[in-house]
Write a structure and sequence with these properties.
The chain is α/β, with parallel strands linked by helices and 344 residues long. The protein has a domain at 5-184 and 220-244: 3-Layer(aba) Sandwich (Rossmann fold), CATH 3.40.50. Helix content is 42%, strand content 17%. It has helices at residues 14-26, 66-76, 90-95, 98-117, 152-171, 193-202, 222-235, 252-262, 288-294, 302-315, 317-324, 327-338; strands at 5-9, 31-36, 56-60, 80-83, 122-128, 175-180, 182-184, 207-210, 216-221, 241-244, 249-251, 270-273. The mean pLDDT is 96. Bound molecules: nicotinamide-adenine-dinucleotide. The site of nicotinamide-adenine-dinucleotide has 29 residues, from helix 1, helix 4, strand 5 and strand 7. Residues 10, 12-16, 36-39, 41-42, 62-64, 84-88, 103, 107, 126, 128, 157, 180, 182-183, 189 line the site of nicotinamide-adenine-dinucleotide (NAD).
């Protein structure tokens, strides 16, 4: 289906803003409504290229607000709801997890109820490879694998993933789930591994490496991830789960070495710091289900994507300097204090 009207939650965030931009371009007759509470992670300026388009409307609202969500879904009557709004940072969920339960679990429940009441045809729930928990070599996670999340963030995402699926099995709601791997690219809040490293390097600061740096992650560029989500809206089957995977799997330290090489630096700027408690050693998904069912494969190689990302952060210093000030600076100082030796 190509929706005539679509609501995108979390559309002022990193992946959501790219979903909004691509939806406006890919579906030239579609009205797109962005819903976002503009937390520390969401900014109107992330919607550059979408704001100002007559087919785009921005609504500042909280997905935990059942009355507001019911009224909005009833008013817009979207054919599809693409749900990305979430608390998204594992380290913050270790520091304080309640807001993760409220937004990721209760907020998702609120949206599912509103979608059901107002007959939304497709509910696209954006989930993550972290719901599988630690994946030992050489296994590749498949949609039918059990969910064994190990961080409060991952547990809240697993709960919302299961809740979404339960609305398909119980109520027949047109739920489709995508599970994405680690995503990188422009407009990513600088607390996450790659933008933290890139902006630290641009500021001449050291780059933290958690533990032994051998935790394996799978990487996809945000333009590919967003396109995969829209392809799942168009041709996903109700009740099905689609991996947004790339096959580009490498240890955190190795991806940092790639960034250092691109920025003309060497390993002397890396600082080993205390590991994240309960840090999963490996995430890896089998990309085949999405290739077979949706025809989805990423187009951007990791090398090309990293080059473009480094260039974007170089060219958008005001964007990330603004985000690194204020409450982020407090958060960063707390992280530094907890992981003694960070700046050592
Ligand atoms: N970044 C990744 O590597 C990755 C990988 C797989 C899946 N995901 C999932 O994709 C989605 C988007 O991730 P992201 O990296 O773009 O996150 P992000 O933190 O950049 O954006 C989240 C957005 O949600 C908004 N939001 C938070 N709480 C809200 C609330 N209560 N009501 C309304 N809006 C609220 C924020 O303001 C922000 O704009 C999340 O569901 C995340 O779990 C992310």
């Amino acid at each position: 289906m190509i929706p005539g009207r679509v609501i995108v939650t979390g559309g002022a965030g990193f992946i959501g803003s790219e979903v909004v931009r691509q939806a406006l371009e890919r579906w030239p007759d579609t009205q797109v409504v962005t819903v976002d509470a503009l937390t520390y992670a969401g900014h109107r300026s992330n919607l550059e290229g979408a704001d100002g388009n007559p087919r785009h409307r921005f609504v500042e609202a909280d997905i935990r607000d059942a009355v507001a969500m019911d009224a909005l879904v009833g008013e817009v009557k979207p054919d599809a709801l693409v749900h990305l709004a979430a608390e998204s940072h594992v380290d913050r969920s270790i520091e304080a997890s309640t807001v993760f339960l409220e937004t990721n679990v209760v907020g998702t429940g609120v949206l599912l109820e509103a979608a059901r009441r107002h007959g939304v045809r497709r509910f696209l729930h954006v989930s993550t490879d972290e719901v599988y928990g630690d994946v030992p070599e050489p296994h590749l996670s498949r949609p039918e694998d059990p969910l064994l999340p190990r961080s409060p963030y991952a547990a809240s995402k697993a709960a919302s993933d299961l809740l979404a699926r339960s609305h398909f099995t119980t109520h027949g709601l047109g739920v489709v789930i995508t599970r994405g791997c680690n995503t990188y690219g422009p407009y990513q809040f600088p607390e996450k591994l790659l933008p933290l490293a890139i902006t630290n390097l641009l500021l001449g600061e050291p780059v933290p490496v958690y533990g032994d740096g051998r935790q394996v992650r799978e990487w996809i560029h945000v333009t590919d991830h967003a396109r995969g989500i829209l392809m799942a809206v168009e041709s996903g089957v109700d009740g099905e789960i689609y991996p947004m995977a790339s096959g580009e799997r490498l240890a955190n330290e190795d991806i940092l070495m790639k960034v250092l090489a691109l920025m003309g630096r060497d390993a002397s700027v890396l600082r080993r710091v205390a590991d994240r408690p309960g840090h999963d050693r490996r995430y890896a998904m089998d990309p085949e289900p999405s290739r077979a069912a949706l025809g989805f494969t990423p187009v951007l190689s990791l090398q090309a994507g990293l080059e473009a990302t480094v260039a974007w952060y170089r060219d958008h210093r005001a964007w990330w300097e603004e985000r690194r000030s204020g409450s982020y600076a407090d958060y960063y100082r707390r992280q530094v204090a907890q992981r003694a030796g960070w700046q050592g």
